[in-house]
Amino acid sequence: MAKVTLIVLRVCFVCLGNICRSPTAEGVLRRLLVEAGLERAVHVESAGTASYHVGELPDRRTREHARRRGLVLESRARHFTAASFQRFELVLAMDEANRRALLELAPSEADASKVRLLRDYDPEAPPGASVPDPYYGGAEDFERVLDQCERACRGLLDALREGGAVDR
Ligand code: 4NP
Questions:
Q1: Which one of 60, 151, 153, 155 has the largest count of C-beta atoms within 10 Å of its C-beta?
Q2: pLDDT greater than 90 at residue 122
């Protein structure tokens, strides 16, 4: 009998360039899903609201800091466009500027309602908190991105389970 893969939710993380924050969140959530045996239930991607890095691997510093936590990040940068909304149920922005850019891009109210801030799922974050851009920062900024993505993605997984979107 043919094997059926059941994807119950499609999630896209979105930052500006898709080379620092959103590929980090993508890698972090993927690992949590594998650890939970839920990798078939949630499809994960990332993209940027800007197109200047399309096709590139994540930033060298992003990959190096992730690698130290055992995460190999090798997705290629993509541009999030109005058409991208068709492919996802949940679109998670890294900060307010990207959240606003996504809302402007959304073709419908239903699409706009897919947009949330990632750190809304971080139990330690105040409402409206962002994952700050580390691009012009130092090592501690890249470490902070990983810490924030790990907390928020754990919270996201808990929320998905509680909401019944994934059933294990
Ligand atoms: P990201 O970081 O949005 O987390 O991927 C940035 C990457 C590149 C640039 C800005 C932010 N840039 O200006 O090229």
A1: 153
A2: yes
